[in-house]
Design goal:
The structure holds three protein chains of three kinds.
Chain A (H helix, E strand, L loop, with lengths): L5 E2 L12 H24 L10 H14 L1 H7 L8 H4 L6 H35 L2 H10 L8 H34 L12 H27 L6 H32 L4 H9 L3 H25 L4 H27 L1 H4 L6 E2 L12 H9 L1 H11 L22
Chain B lengths: L4 H20 L15 E6 L8 H10 L8 E8 L8 E3 L16 E8 L7 H5 L5 E3 L5 E3 L9 H5 L6 E3 L4 E3 L5 H4 L6 H5 L5 E5 L6 H8 L2 E2 L11 E4 L7
Chain C lengths: L5 H24 L13 H7 L8 H7 L1 H7 L9 H5 L3 H5 L11 H9 L14 H5 L30
Helix pairs in contact in C: 3-4
Classes of the chains: A mainly alpha, B alpha+beta, C mainly alpha.
Chain lengths: 399, 242, 163
């Protein structure tokens, strides 16, 4: 397969190393971190308005986190050796340390928090359901059926503590992915101390937008009335985080343009030619500026509920597309130019290959059936009628 | 080298014994090699390079390098007067079949490139499992039975000298012909270079000609601002070389 | 009190078991030579060094072909290693009787070094081969081991004299 090269590339650079699957990976882990931060807003910062989305955000985070390693496994030359990262991790490698950050986040934060929050429901369901589902619930309760007030109170306190740890853990999760790129001194498109920060904030943006969209979609599918105050609050947080994210990205851009170092001319040309559509048009204009303006309008003007919902839907979709484009521009963009700064190559994405478009689409869709299963096993709806330790309907968002 | 009959009589048995070691393959058969006594590098004399491509071909043959990938390659530079930051560079098939003739004016020269066997190797730093490493004698190697093929090292190398071998799906690059230098031979590329533009250097050997050479010539490494501790030294390298 | 944290204790026990299983697995699976010299499999060094060589090195060639060396010493090609033109000959050196080097085509190999190119050093002998020989193979006039054309004494050895 002849890859068209413009100018000069080192001979081994012509073929891209990291494919669209490696674009998917930070996108998916970003959604996880963002969804979790939204959930923690309620738990730790007592933003009561977003309570209705608390459990949905956690389950969304879990569904995506379970899918996250798959693009990596499919990309590896030897996936059967991937366990080596846990057996002999090279401590100086951000990628190796990330394996443990991922494991920590999955086991000690997300799964534990979900388990503690749902434990009462799981115990009740293990006593009321039959067949396979009964068995599943029984296993999940670890054989303990104690749901006394005291035990649930302990759960609640422990869950709170875990959420508090979970916030920096979520930052660490996605900040680390940013650091995996940001620490590569050989690549001036990636190498930047801002990279982990930009990744974290764009992750929060994509995660919040995804939970918002899922909340709207599932409410509509279930034929229920949406909690508009909750939605407004989520959109408000989305707006704030988006402004910070956009500022950071613009800061990076301005800094590059102003300092105009050795790499600048080459990168500038790349953005103007190969990345014009994906970066300037899709990521910046369509995926960032437009949603910010739209959300800004809802913050400034008193718009009707219907108009707000339409804006949230459109802005949310554009946001998610824009953040995906950002990951694309970072990963693929970072490999399109030569480290000699004298040339450019082209990304030839396969279609039905192991790292092709079809695989990418399948992996992007996979979290949804997983989420569906999770939602069936652990209904996150505020009106599911579950009662927590303190006697209030914590999940319902009613104080 | 002056071969008299007497010297030949002395050399032949030594050559035969050395050859036995080479063919035996294992370093245990070359018991005199101590890892800590060597610190390998290479000297490349740019004014001597004629871009014949012998080194690229020899390396490919010695190391079974797959077609389309290069453990070493040659770049031809054309620098128009003051445009030191914008040279015209080309490397047709890595320079494997030499370079097509051309008649351009201005400053033109060849630059052979290979893994720089960095003492502070960024590729080693990022390997998640320890599949690539710097040996105690200063050669950066890849353990292909341990490599995951994650490609992080390929991204981290500032010089573009690494690639993924499509047959093994693992990272690969110049090994400084480790299997040769540990048995007293020189690298394949240095062996075949007709002008002596490439010379293997053992920086720990006080008798190695590189010491005198570096004292008397202006020598550089590629991308010094990356502080990789590169051990491939270039004599007569123009500022336009990327 | 104990009853109320029973589920947490069970969880802790589960995690402890997982940790022990991990440590055991690690002890069993990690290669023994790992960490011998650094964070890598120490055996890899010997494995990589153990690869057989394909190029013999000019010392080995000269050990048998001293006559060619004598001829080379009379000209500029004394500095050109044998295998630069003849290719990898370790197999031939190992079994000279049965493995014979391929015959070289001077029409192809000489041009690689000597075809004129603006990037070659100015003092390096280079020609536009089409002009220089009018399409004839280089070996028609030049003896590769002693390339300078002289009309003086020439022997009948296979390696000496014009072809």
């Amino acid at each position: 397969m002849q890859i068209p090269v413009e100018g000069f590339m080192y001979p081994n650079e012509v073929e891209l190393q990291w494919s669209v699957l490696i674009v998917l990976y930070p996108f998916i882990t970003g959604l996880v971190a963002g969804a979790f931060i939204l959930a923690s807003l309620e738990r730790v910062f007592h933003v009561d308005a977003v309570k209705p989305t608390y459990r949905l955000a956690l389950l969304t985070a879990l569904a995506f986190l379970l899918v996250a390693p798959l693009p990596l496994q499919l990309h590896l030359g030897h996936p059967e050796r991937s366990f080596e990262m846990y057996l002999t991790p090279h401590r100086s490698s951000a990628m190796a340390m990330f394996g443990f950050v991922y494991l920590w986040y999955l086991m000690a934060v997300l799964l534990l928090e979900i388990w503690l929050d749902y434990r009462r429901d799981m115990v009740l369901k293990s006593q009321t359901t039959t067949g396979v589902t009964r068995f599943i619930y029984r296993v999940l309760t670890l054989g303990s059926s104690n749901i006394s007030e005291r035990s649930l109170h302990i759960d609640e306190r422990l869950g709170y503590f875990i959420t508090v740890i979970g916030i920096p853990s979520a930052f660490l999760l996605h900040g680390y992915v940013g650091f995996i790129f940001g620490s590569v001194k050989a690549n001036p498109w990636w190498s930047s101390p801002l990279m982990p920060i930009v990744f974290i904030f764009s992750a929060m943006v994509s995660g919040i937008a995804t939970v918002m969209l899922l909340y709207m979609l599932t409410t509509w599918l279930r034929g229920k009335e949406i909690d508009i105050l909750c939605l407004d609050k989520i959109a408000q947080y989305l707006f704030y985080v988006f402004v910070i994210d956009f500022s950071l990205e613009m800061l990076d851009l301005l800094h590059r343009i102003y300092e105009a170092d050795e790499s600048f001319r080459s990168l500038d040309f790349m953005v103007h030619s190969r990345l014009w559509v994906s970066q300037v048009f899709i990521q910046i204009l369509l995926g960032t500026v437009t949603p910010i303006i739209m959300l800004g309008l809802t913050q400034i003007f008193n718009l009707s509920e219907i108009v707000r919902k339409r804006i949230y839907t459109l802005a949310g979709c554009l946001t998610v597309i824009g953040i995906f484009a950002m990951r694309w521009n970072v990963v693929i963009g970072g490999q399109l130019f030569s480290k000699s700064f004298l040339g450019y190559t082209t990304y030839k994405m396969g279609f039905a290959t192991r790292e092709g478009l079809l695989t990418a689409i399948a992996l992007m869709l996979l979290p949804f059936p997983i989420l569906w299963v999770l939602v069936k096993l652990f209904p996150p709806w505020p009106d599911a009628g579950s009662v927590t330790a303190s006697g209030t309907n914590r999940a319902q968002g009613i104080s | 080298m002056d071969i008299t009959r007497r010297r030949l009589l002395l050399l032949l048995p030594a050559a035969a014994v050395a050859w036995k070691y080479v063919q035996a393959g294992t370093p245990e058969a070359a018991p005199n090699y101590k890892l800590t006594e060597h610190w390998w590098g290479m000297l490349i004399d740019i004014p001597k390079c004629i871009g014949c491509g012998s080194c690229v071909r020899a390396c490919a043959e010695e190391n079974d390098v797959p077609e389309g990938y290069y453990r070493t390659w040659i770049e031809r530079y054309h620098v128009a007067d003051w445009k030191i930051e914008r040279p015209d560079v080309e490397s047709p098939n890595g320079g494997k079949q030499g370079f097509p003739p051309n008649e351009i004016g201005g400053k033109n020269f060849f630059v052979p490139k290979l893994c720089n066997h960095c003492a502070d190797s960024p590729c080693t730093q990022v390997c998640p499992v320890g599949a690539t490493f710097v040996t105690p004698d200063g050669v950066v190697l890849v353990d292909k039975s341990y490599c995951l093929g994650c490609r992080y090292c390929v991204q981290a190398c500032p010089y573009g000298c690494r690639f993924i071998n499509p047959k093994t799906d693992t990272a690969e690059k110049c090994t400084l012909c480790y299997h040769r230098i540990t048995k007293g031979l020189t690298t394949a590329c240095c062996e075949v270079c007709p002008t002596g533009a490439r010379q293997l250097a053992d920086l720990k050997n006080p008798k190695d000609p590189i010491h005198e050479f570096m004292r008397t010539h202006a020598v550089q490494v590629l991308k010094p601002h990356m502080a990789t501790g590169a051990k491939v030294f270039y004599n007569g390298m123009d500022g336009s070389v990327r | 009190m104990f009853k109320d944290v029973e589920h947490l204790i069970r969880l802790a026990v589960l995690m402890a078991i997982a940790l022990i299983a991990f440590v055991t697995l690690r002890a069993l699976v990690v290669p023994h030579s790992f960490g011998e010299y650094g964070h890598y499999r120490g055996d890899a060094i010997a494995e990589i060094a153990g690869r057989p060589a394909a190029f013999a090195g000019h010392d080995i060639c000269e050990a048998c072909h001293a006559d060619v060396l004598e001829q080379k010493k009379q000209g500029k090609h004394v500095v050109v290693p044998c295998e630069a033109c003849h290719g990898a000959q370790a197999k031939h050196a190992d079994d000279p009787a049965s493995v014979k080097p391929a015959k070289l085509d001077t029409a192809v190999i000489c041009a690689r070094c000597h075809e004129a190119n603006s990037a070659k050093p100015k003092d390096f002998p280079q020609v536009d081969t089409a002009d220089h020989s009018g399409g004839l193979a280089c070996g028609t006039c030049h003896q590769p081991h002693r390339p300078k054309i002289e009309t003086a004494a020439v022997t009948n050895s296979a390696t000496e004299g014009p072809k």
